[in-house]
Amino acid sequence: MRGPCARSEENEELEEEAAAAAARPAGVSEAEEGSHTDSDSDLETEGTHGLGELGGDTLYLESCRTHSVVPISCFLHQGSAPELNLRHRGLGPQGAQALASSLASNPCIRRLDLRDNGLCGAGAEALAAALSKSSSICDVDLSENQLGAAGAQALCAALAGNSAVQKIQLSGNGLEEQAAQHLAELLLDHTGLKSLDLSYNELNDQAGEMLGPALAENTGLTELNISWNHLRGPGAVAFARGLEANIFLKVLDISYNGFGDPGASAVGEALKANNVLEELNMSNNRISAVGALSLGLGLRVNQTLRVLVVSRNPMRSEGCFGLLKSVQDNPAPALELLDFSDIQVNMEFDDLASSVKVIIPGLCIKTGARRAEYKKEFLPVFRLSLPVPAP
């Protein structure tokens, strides 16, 4: 089977024929097409000033002919809609190149969704050129497109010079440490970026060591999702130290990594100094009871964190108890949700939770795991019926 970045010659020929047919109005013969092509070229050379829907469609159709791809009907019918949703369309690199030429001249599109289109590095480079010129697009989803380091480099370079883009999703693109350097530069240069999704990639220790210092210096990002990566060891600690110095981030998802106890301890130190973060997801990070107690040192003094999720960590009831005790000892806690889902707790934890609820009635403590019930088993007692002696 061919990958999404390869295209057979047979398909190209079929797509070229379909593109030409789609561009030709109904009832117009091939012999008459030349005059229409000339008029289309005239519209294209006139620029985008005063260009209506027909002109925009003409630019796109001409580009589809150039790149030998079939035009996408929903883009032709886009009109002045603020969102362009082309996810799962199989655009490929050539389809992205055909689309890019029309995006920069469309002042209506604010959200661009191209998730799962096999764009690869070449498609990302074409879109990067369009995004660098667009002043209207502020929300971009390029998840699941196999962008790789080359695609990330092109996009980050383009976005660094475009303050209009405030939200970008790059989930599931196979991004590794080679891409991390470009992402770090984006965090340093793009002060208008508010939300960044890097989940389901392959960012490892080296990536964490590059992203941590960039996060410390970033000014503007309020939401970061870096879940389902490989941040662990020194990389996790370096990333957590970046959180300690950051003064803008409000929502952070680092779940399904490998922070472990050293990473949890570093996050605990960060929570002592950070007075901005409001939501933190650390579920499934290999945090034991020791790491939970270190994390609790930050909860004892932090006064901004509203949501903490630490579910599916091997901290046992002892770790849950330690975290909850830290919240109880905090003189001015802001916590509204403490999530221990899928961690088994005992009656001692339940007693503490009841006490904390009296002090902080607005706190929701979630466990969601069945408690272990230990009951002493007694052997059945058999009563023997002895015959009553005759009088």
TrEMBL record:
SMART domains, sorted: LRR_RI
Domain of life: Eukaryota
Region entry Disordered, spans: 1-51
Record SUPFAM superfamilies: RNI-like
Residue stretches of biased makeup (Low complexity): 19-29
Pfam families: LRR_6
Name the record gives this protein: Leucine rich repeat containing 74B
